[in-house]
Write a structure and sequence with these properties.
Strands 1, 2, 3, 4, 5 and 6 form a six-stranded mixed β-sheet that branches. The protein is elongated and about 75 Å long. The protein is 20% helix and 34% strand. By secondary structure, it is of the alpha+beta class.
Length: 263
Amino acid sequence: IRGSEITRRMPPGHSNAVFITDANKLLIDDSIAVFREAKKQGAFVFWNHPNWVSQRRDGIATLTDMHRVLIKEKLLDGIEVVNDQTYSDEALQIALDNNLTIMGTSDIHGLIDWDFKVPKGGHRPITLVFATSKSEEGIKEGLMNRRTVVFYNNLLIGREEQLVPLINASISIKSAKYIGRSDVLEIVFNNQSSVDFTLQNKSGYTFHNSSDLVTVKPGEENTLQVKTLKRLETVELAFEVLNGVTAPGKHPQVKISGKIAQQ
């Protein structure tokens, strides 16, 4: 995928244009004209590190009049909510308010393993694109239609339409059976993702081996004992996913259900 950075002082700051056809044609001094040329080439353009302290001393991502022009003319498609080691609630709100694609990048200038401590289980920030095909066209279509979730520091950030199905596809009930003759149900969860999910109980049940906070780790059997008060044939648990973010201060809620083995 061909791309180029559009580097300016603030405003408008730094942006990336991807899916371009000729980077040389972006060598334009006028800060608005260069975005128009990128869009003429069919580019997907996103604003880099809007909270960068070198251009925003307070670290607060803020729209300027120039950014409003770019958005009005549909010359700006996305905004980085995560860049390198930083996260911006304000950038997320800008994305939601202005229908921009939520982006996250490593902005790596050194070694990924060193900067993000990959050997110790860390990971670089990435943007998950929900594409209809494994192709350049599919990725571009997904980006243009704002179907993204950002994975950063064990945090998932995205619109509810993408984030909730991702979580539902990640966590499932492997088995559920009552302990002996009791009414305490033992559930084993599967987690098919790379995320440690932090869940807060929002169901009508209390737990026998945990408080209302539950961690579901990937690659392990995660056991939860639920006091259902009476024997059931199926179970449904509601959780708020605390390491998921759909808006500043807002976390998605999911329901996980399954059949109970009859004894």
